[in-house]
Amino acid sequence: MNTLYKIRNAERKSHESCYENNRLFEEGSWLAKPVSSVMDILPLLNKESSVKILDLGCGVGRNCIPAAQFFSKIKTPCFIDCVDLLDCAINQLMSYSKKYQVGDKIIPHTCAIEDFPIPPETYTLILGISSLEHAASLEHLKDLLSKISLGLKPKGIACLILNSNITEENTVDHSILLPQFEINLPTETMINLLKKSFSKCRVLQNRTSAQSYTIPREDLQVIIHTNVITYIVQKL
């Protein structure tokens, strides 16, 4: 079993467990509400005649469904390409999107985020929320960041949240485990990569915060320690 397969299998099991045991927008997990950074930037686009969004690593709709609701409320035509590697995530996304009455705005795609084609100057908003570090390799990440930059329309916004400097710890004996992330860069290296990739964009936010959270890994509970980078840019 190669390393990429092992990492993606561990992530799949962790996410499947979360999706099976928690409902979208119900208290008790990180699915309870959308990311505040995403919701905060939506009003910046409320004067657009129409909005096309790309959500890379969409999961079950934590961010794309509230985005669709936001633009529906202000009567702005909106279509969202939603990309995830997991069939179970896409299946639940479609169920939830119907439940929350935005099914006609959600376009599902089951594939790895690095494999999704991003045509130039296509998207008003591109989201990559705790997903880009799951690109298959550093070269895949670099290529993906380039495609995101080129894929934004003029004045389009990319909202990216990435984990960096990640460690994993067994909650029982506190032993250090091998982080199950495809890409684990030092924080400064990741920030420099983002700056280089979006050198032709205006930086709206560049913030780093240390975070820790617990997830299931096989028969273990694991604490993940990470420096979370929030990087939001607007194409000039």
Characterise the protein shown here.
- The chain is α/β, with parallel strands linked by helices and 236 residues long.
- It has helices at 3-21, 36-41, 64-73, 87-99, 138-151, 187-197, and strands at 51-56, 78-84, 106-110, 123-129, 152-170, 176-177, 201-217, 220-235.
- Strands 1, 2, 3, 4, 5, 6, 7 and 8 form an 8-stranded mixed β-sheet that branches.
- The longest helix has 19 residues, at 3-21.
- The termini are far apart.
- The model has no long low-confidence stretch (mean pLDDT 95).
User: What is the overall shape?
Assistant: globular
Helix content: 25-40%
Strand content: 25-35%
Estimated structural class? alpha/beta
As residue ranges, the low-confidence spans are none
Gyration radius (Cα, Å) is 17 Å
Distance between the termini: 44 Å
The major pleated sheet works out as:
8 strands, mixed
The topology string of helices and strands comes to: HHEHEHEEHEEHEE
Question: How many beta-strand runs?
Answer: 8
Helical segment tally? 6
**Mean pLDDT value:** 95
